[in-house]
Amino acid sequence: MAKSLLDSVGEPCTPSNAVLAIIRGHKRSLDVATICQGKMKFFSVLMLAWGLVADVDIESEKYRWMGSARLDFYAVQRIVHLRQYNGSISFVPAPGFEAYGEPTSYSNASEPTNQHNAGAPNQEEPISIRQHGYPGPDINLASMDWRTISGPFVSIWLHNVPWGGEDTKAAPDAKFSDGYIDVIMMRVCPKLSLLSLMSGLSTGSHIKSPYVLYFKVKAFILQPGPLTKDPTKEGRIDSDCEVLARGKGAYKCDQKTLMVYDKLQVTVDQGLATLFSPV
């Protein structure tokens, strides 16, 4: 988030520049995404990932002693042993992106398909959260024009701001408060092309790859599935560096999570949050 704010005015991402931005007291609005599954709600300001990006982010924790190099190191491992996941996505496209996907009707994601699919034999239900506070945006999703895309997928990555790290320009066209989430989607990609594509993350050029679809949405539904080559194993869903859900056979799948590895819904509240900003 600091990188996105400072880069927007051409300033280096340093602690001193971030502190000066706070001292100056300038503010800007920020969109907030509500991730919903049943009665569970999780508010996100940065990103949501499933597939390759989530696998690298979470599974590379075992190499944290390597510092930030752990991400590059483990990304190469995951590309060499590339996983693809079955599943589907549905979304309400932003203006100009109506050609993506195929028409579909709204499928209520307020309840997961399998209430007890908590991703582990000893985990019967997700962690209970007290239902207080902001309920999320009040919009009529059924009246919107929905589109759908089916897998298999290598990666689904939703981003609210341009930068996902100091050297990862995940969504170069993302805006802080345009009311939309940027989607970076990859279905099939040769391994060598994927290695080349990943090297473009530092400049945002990866979105120009023929293997990447990049578009903006107002609302989004993810229906995650198992690995294409091993239906007994599933993945994980990651948001703002928190594991929302782990499927069966996934890394540390014995740990409880906020949500189950099943259908979830994302809606966007335009400009709900406020940030200190350089200008």
UniProtKB/TrEMBL annotation:
InterPro entries: Lipid_Phosphate_FormReg, NAD/diacylglycerol_kinase_sf, YegS/DAGK_C. Residues 156-223 form the YegS/DAGK C-terminal domain. One of its GO terms (biological process) is sphingosine biosynthetic process. GO terms for molecular function: lipid kinase activity; phosphotransferase activity, alcohol group as acceptor. Gene3D superfamilies: 2.60.200.40. Pfam families: YegS_C. It comes from the Eukaryota. One of its GO terms (cellular component) is membrane. This is YegS/DAGK C-terminal domain-containing protein.
